[in-house]
Amino acid sequence: MKSLLSKIVAVIFLMVIASTNSYADKIRIALAETPSDELAAFFVALDRAKANGLDYEWTAFADEELAIQSILSGQMDIGFGTPYSAMQKSKAPIRIIFQLSKLKFFPVTTYDYDKLEDLNGEPILLHSRGGGTDSIANVIEDKLGIKFGERSYISGSSNRVAALLANQAKATIIDLSNKNKITASHGDQFHALPMFDVDASDEALFANLDWIKSNSADVDIFVKALLSVYRDMANDPTIIRRETNPDGPIGELPEEVLGELDGFYADAVAGGLYDVNGGGAVAANADMEWYHKAGQLTGDFGDLDINDFWYLKPLQDAN
What we know:
By secondary structure, the protein is α/β, with parallel strands linked by helices. It has helices at 2-24, 40-51, 64-72, 84-90, 132-144, 157-165, 176-185, 209-214, 216-235, 239-243, 255-258, 261-270, 280-293, 313-318; strands at residues 27-31, 56-60, 78-81, 94-102, 105-110, 124-126, 151-153, 171-175, 190-192, 201-208.
């Protein structure tokens, strides 16, 4: 009887372990904003990865800083943003594995301003503190020798466009698609100021290095799915609309947003927002130079090591 009881306990124990492992195998993804047209390609990649066996769940945080903290704390497994400052300051083994998009952003203002230098001392609306648009503002200041006035933050380019239209701001930095939209529909009120080229990362996929190595099979599925979407999209941007799950978070967006997906991704591909090779060493070097100039990486530039910020093996294996 005692032997039988021991066997039953052992079976129950194994069932609990199996259940726990099954839950642990689900990748927890930290989004830095709510699902939008800008994330449609990412969700198409998630659907492709799921079809190849990736189990995941996602959580949308209010801003990039909170998403980064969720990775540092171990609350979430993998997220996207550009956590260079957090990586350097925390000394945590956080590494980037994929460039999701480049910093192709544009200063859009009222006609009170004709050039970037006119924004000296003027307030500006940005995405998030420490994020891509914040770094662009820093580099603009450094390159042109100006200093913006008060910085305020609203996540999402479309939300910053809404703030412009509501007269809540006169100057902001927004993405290519929203720049094209507002200058086309309200060109009598707003225009894009001339801007220098930027090739560094706006959004990148990152995680704890120990987690990446322990979950290499899932990471491989994820990276290959992203590469397949980016390469298909480069040939035909309409693939995003056609593969968007109507019952998923993007498919549930308003019809007017879904109806613009083809134009959004056609503009994005033409504007060079996506690297069909996932960035890799080219993006890593561009990032280090950019974010050092932006002030998010400190110390002597020559002392910075690419391997402290990127883990290139997943991309090398997938390519």
